[in-house]
Amino acid sequence: MSTDDAHVVADADLKDIADAVASESRGFLTTVTEVAAGSAPEASLPLLLLALSDLLAAGARLGATTDVVPPSRFEPDVGPDADLEPLRANLANLLDGIDEYVEVIDPLLGPQVEEASISGDLVAIVGAVTQGLAHHERGHVLEALWWWQFSYLADWGERAASTLRAIQTILAHVRLDVDDDVAAEAEYDALQP
Fold it and tell me: How many CA atoms lie within 13 A of 43 on its CB side?
């Protein structure tokens, strides 16, 4: 395979990765926006769990990819940042009483913890993937990949993983924390022919 052929294959592989991350980003943004709008409050946590899991799978692919380096040192302008405060406020309102959680800052450096919020983390992730999506939609594939990869490793990957764990823990409490009488009755009913 010639150098030119290898370059074309590498470009095609990177474009495939960029297209997959763009698709997952759009799906994530749609889900978070619909959840924040309160369209299905009883399904909010499961929907967020699924959306974060899917986005983290795309992020893992970014983390496993060799460092992407765009041809220019300067990021092309994609316009002003969106005002994400209304989204954060809607999510915080929806998650009132379960929004805050504690996370380990860096599990490799020690047990220091800090307070975080699901709404704040979701909005930070939305901001990061939206920036990459703006580059992708303008045809700046390498810039989009660089942005998604850098921000995944530097911030949103960790935030998504922590938020996913918090949401999974909430779901576990909701589904498993039942009175002993209710659990015994359910166990009795399950064992009856």
Answer: 10
